[in-house]
Each structure stands twice: as C-alpha cells, then as structure tokens.
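User: As part of a screening pipeline, I want to sanity-check one entry by hand. Below is the sequence and the SMILES for zinc ion. Please return the complex as structure tokens so I can compare it with the automated output.
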Amino acid sequence: MYKNNCYVRNHSFARTPKGIVIHSTGANNPKLARYVQPYSGQTEGTAYIDSSGVSVAKTASQMITLLGKHTGSNDWNKPQPEGIPKCVSAFIGKMADSTVATVQTLLWDCNVWGSGEGPKGSCNGTHIQFECCEDACTDAGYFAKIWDEALALLAHLCNLYGLSASAVVSHKEAYDLGFGSNHGDIDAWFTKQGSAMAKFRAAVAAKITKRG
Ligand SMILES: [Zn+2]
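Assistant: Here is the complex for your manual check:
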C-alpha cells in the first residue's frame, strides 16, 4: 500500500515486531478487493507467491485479476483521513476466484495504524497487525477457512520473529490490556462461531511446535 500515508510516513522506521494483533473488519464484505487494490500502473510490491513459495512479479492489472476489481474508491491504498487513519500489515479474505488467501500490504517491520491507543499506549509501533474480512459471521465454512489461513500466517510470523503464541492478541484483548481502542474484534466473530481467542492461541502454539 505505497499510497497509504501510513506506509509513506513509517516505512523507513523499521522495528522488530514484538507481537501480533488479529483484527476483523466489522463489515459484511469478505472480498479482499474492497480493501486492497494496486494503484494505476503500480509496479512496486506487486507479486504473487505461488504454491511452491516462489515470488512471481505481477502488473497492477494482473493483481486486479487475482484480487478482483473494487468498484468503489474507498480501498486503503491511498492517503487516509487524518481523523481515522488506518493501515495494517495484511488482510485475509476472498480473492476474485473466492479462494481465501492472505495479501501482505506493508512490510512486516513497518509501523501500522490498526489498534488505536489505550491508556497504556498503542500496539501500532510494536505489533504486526492483520485484518480478517468478515462476512455476515454466520457461515461456518468461510470461518473455517479464515481460521486455517490465519493460523498458517501466524505460525509463519511466529517462526520468522521467534515469537510464542502468547504474543498473539486480538484487538479486543489489546484494548482490555490498555494498549488499544475500544473494539470487540475478532472475539465477537469467534463467539458467534462457538470459539474464542484462548482456543485459537492454543492452535497457534500447536502449529508453531509442529513446525519446529
Ligand atoms: Zn480491530
């Protein structure tokens, strides 16, 4: 998201991530295209990691073919309003072919604008943060795919930065700890699907262990 002012202002201040915050969007639109679009003619940062882990450069139009085309103008790859600036490290949702996938939108070591501030500070300068694109939160099949994709991403990031599962928190938990704004995500979606962050963290811990 080279056009987002979060990237413009923060990408040169690299920091080592100390944890990860998981969010969900709070709006019924599971399509990645709603949030993530290349700008016209974008060439930097547009790549697709294929199933064997190889990075393949893509043009902006090829990225739109993969992600889908957003018909509105409110994707996040542009300057954000000063009052409610927002940008996260990645999104998980549906690509154009309805496959559930992760799209990285900032360098992992770039500060984000995701969880706001609480009385003790903010996770924005210390934590990788990603959004899961909500649907109506009643589709168990979609939720299961989000769960699996988020687990895979978290296992990868925990291994990459030597983090344990206890370093993974939801936006709601960040708020409860005094380091975030007053939001209920992603716990509200988990609750509707009969799950909880504690169960999710246990699954993350098991996946990290399995990967050695
Ligand atoms: Zn959130």
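Points to compare against the pipeline: The pocket of zinc ion is lined by residues 23, 171, 183, 185 (CB under 6 Å). The beta strands are 19-24, 47-49, 55-57, 90-94, 100-104, 127-132, 168-170.
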